[in-house]
Model the fold of this input.
Amino acid sequence: MADYDKRKKDELEREKARGEEPDEEGWVTVTRHGRTPGAPRTEAMEKKALKREKKKRSRRELMNFYTFQIREGKREHIAQLRKKFEEDKDKIAAMKANRRFRPY
Done:
């Protein structure tokens, strides 16, 4: 087994050396081993890849496909803005009542 490992290691080194140097005509041999090794196949990397795929898939899905969904979304957004405005108005009135209102 040690002999096999040594032979594979020597073969890999020869292949790397052959790929880095151009031959007499100036051509560089392309090998299957690139400059950087591939990403490791760990559990964390697989989770990261799955998360990336899920995010891509969710981005492709249409949230508001039908016109009534778009209208409802706009209506809800405006209702939230109005509610926030009323809350801010009440807060400002309370601050004025306490004489702590300093707009600048």
